[in-house]
Design a protein that fits this description.
Layout: H1 14-26, H2 44-63, H3 77-92, H4 97-116, H5 139-160, H6 169-179, H7 183-186, E1 197-203, E2 208-215, E3 218-221, E4 246-253, H8 254-261, H9 267-273, E5 275-278, H10 280-286
Parallel strand pairs: 1-4
Antiparallel strand pairs: 1-2, 2-3, 4-5
Helix pairs in contact: 1-4, 1-5, 2-3, 2-4, 2-5, 5-6
Length: about 290
């Protein structure tokens, strides 16, 4: 019995997200590359170097079978990632913006081919630790996690240089759907009676409605109700059939949700923007949802 929701296939979206990113980068002025981003200590140039690192790391590992950097003694996964990411970003400061753009453009289709070869329902090549630590992730969640990584870093660059965009529902909605898979792990410390349901509603053109249910001794993503139209900002979400009456409900807008999930804003700021009802322990846990390794 899976704890995850239905397959979210983001593979067709990688070229579209990349073209939006490349179009953004080609339009930047030299001074834009030095603007600070929400990532501590990283400017725009550093974030783009990090994306390039992600391209190269996944090609090297998934396509070429290269194991990459090794863990230091007693190094945790967050510490390992922070160290290796910082090492590449420092080295990447030797690269010109033009060269990084050319490398992203060149390597992107090769990475698309790696994603296309994935069996979405087989065990993931890399487990998604923010969704579960005791069961294997499905392949689609691993691929989806990578898509969210690229999309989020593009938004961080756009924020830094005051350029809107890449939030059209076709590109953004799958990001929110993948992030919602963190619900069961987010609620893991809250044991409840069999069948208890917690609902997350995200308002906006890319928004949606997701439920987690306590079944067989753990939280699992609940089967979705009937398809719902996007929820306009500021309007109540339509109701769908749930496996049980929700014990807790959290509602927030789409901008708040993705920033909370990636810690672009803090938990208290997200709570101030959210509407909650029902079981206070569950709603408090849901508003700590994290969909990155930290």
């Amino acid at each position: 019995m899976s704890i995850f929701g239905p397959v979210v296939d983001v593979r067709p979206l990688f070229p579209r997200e990349r073209q939006a990113m490349l179009g953004l980068l080609r339009g930047l002025e030299p001074a834009d590359w030095a603007k600070a981003t929400v990532c501590p200590g990283w400017d725009v140039h550093d974030v783009v170097a990090h994306v390039l690192n992600d391209y190269m790391r996944r090609l090297s590992g998934a396509r070429d079978g290269h194991s990459g950097a090794v863990f230091a003694d007693d190094e945790t996964l967050p510490a390992y990632l922070a160290r290796t990411n910082a090492e590449f970003v420092r080295a990447g400061r030797q690269l010109s913006p033009r060269l990084m753009i050319e490398l992203l453009e060149h390597l992107g289709p090769r990475l698309d081919a790696v994603w296309a070869a994935h069996d979405l329902e087989a065990p993931a090549g890399l487990n998604v630790s923010w969704a579960a630590t005791d069961v294997d992730s499905p392949g689609w969640l691993d691929v989806g996690r990578e898509y969210t990584e690229f999309w989020v870093h593009q938004q961080q660059v756009r924020d830094a240089v005051s350029r809107p965009g890449a939030t059209e529902p076709e590109l953004m909605a799958p990001v929110l759907g993948v992030f919602a898979q963190a619900l069961p792990f987010t609620l893991r410390a809250c044991d409840r009676p069999e069948g208890t349901v917690a609902v997350l509603e995200v308002h906006g053109p890319a928004g949606g409605r997701w439920s987690a249910q306590w079944r067989a001794g753990r939280w699992r993503m609940a089967a979705p109700g009937p398809d719902l139209p996007p929820v306009p900002a500021g309007e109540p979400a339509p109701q769908a059939a749930d496996p049980g009456e929700p014990a807790a409900r959290v509602s927030m807008d789409q901008d708040t949700f993705w920033r909370l999930a990636t810690r672009g804003i803090g938990v208290e700021q997200a709570r101030a923007r959210a509407e909650v009802s029902g079981d206070a322990e569950l709603t408090a846990a849901m508003t700590t949802l994290l969909a990155v390794i930290a």
